[in-house]
Amino acid sequence: MSWGKAAVVAAGIIPFGELFDQGYESLAAGAFRSMLSGADRSIALSEIDACVVATQRGSLWGQEGIGGNTVPSAIGLSGIPCTRVENACPSGSDAFRVGAMMVASGVHDRVLVIGVEKMRDKSTQEGLLSRAAAGHPVYTRGETAPVLFAPFATRHMHEFGTTREMLAQVAVKNHHNGCLDPYAHFRSEVTVAQVLESPPVCSPLHLLDCCPQTDGAAAVLLTRPEIAADFTDRPVFVAGFGVATDHPYLHEKATYVGLPATQLAASRAYSMASLGPDAIDCAEVHDCFTITEILDIEDLGFVEKGKGGQATLDGLTALDGKLPVNTSGGLLAKGHPIGATGVAQLVECFWQLREEAGERQVAIRKGNALQHNVGGRGSGVSVVTILTRDPA
Predict the structure, then answer these.
(1) Confidence (pTM)
(2) CA distances, 293 to each of 70, 269, 303 (Å)
(3) Catalytic residue among 51, 82, 89, 202
(4) How confident is the model at residue 1 (pLDDT cuts 50, 70, 90)?
């Protein structure tokens, strides 16, 4: 399938963290202002045709009726069409996909995609995430996100000899990258020993194997390629995307050493983009836990199944490696404000392809970047997006 019918022309983000002093709408407004101020050319509000808001606000806060429709008025765009996308952890990347299809369809010429989330105003004890991911009353009893991913780590260790040191190296790498990212929640180095000695959460995962709950927002502007020059001389194009689903409960899984939704979504994205894994210069992948990044780089085809842990130890995914992964710090260091995560990953890919990532800039040789999320009950949904500098 040919594509090339949507272009990213501007992107912005706010610093992630515990943003108790800011409200939901003010986070979105901050990301929007960041996008406007960082644009190559002035963007008039009247030029924006529609808005897609990615957020888990409905599930997390019990405000389904409000959703994302307060965002346009908060950023001076009251009156334009606005659609909320809520699709678990890939909400932001799925909102981007919806925005790209709006542009490609010809219905809208310029679509704003904003991801925004307030995660820290309520505690885990209040059931914030457990309510959002509630499932069968027996099958999911006592189930938390670490409980869902720990069996994958255990099985990967059993089948392939993956070690806790390999998992820890993912955290070490991503926290190092986070130190170079002014928007990251955590900006401090960690060592393998610190990861191994951090408090246990769900064996074999420890505290520093887990991403934090974070507040944040990010925004991008999508246009038709024919009018991209109105906004920038250096647009980045949507080469392809893929979405896939899998069984929602652990007892239904066919494997514990991979995530089939990611594999299917990646296959569809590569096919749409007419590219393979070897054409990717850098990737932002879903590292909610250290084991997840290891699964990701295998499922996305960057390394053979079972080799992800050793590849991480060998530096393949480091900033100066053959395939830098999570240059932003990933979810482990940058944070995981659910609705904003995918959009923020796409912002990083946009900056990397434009070679504007500062100290964390990597070598761009082939002109392509990949973004990936997986999540929902039992990691039952995944979205993969490929961006390119190639306008063809």
Answers:
(1) 0.95
(2) 34, 19, 12
(3) 89
(4) very low
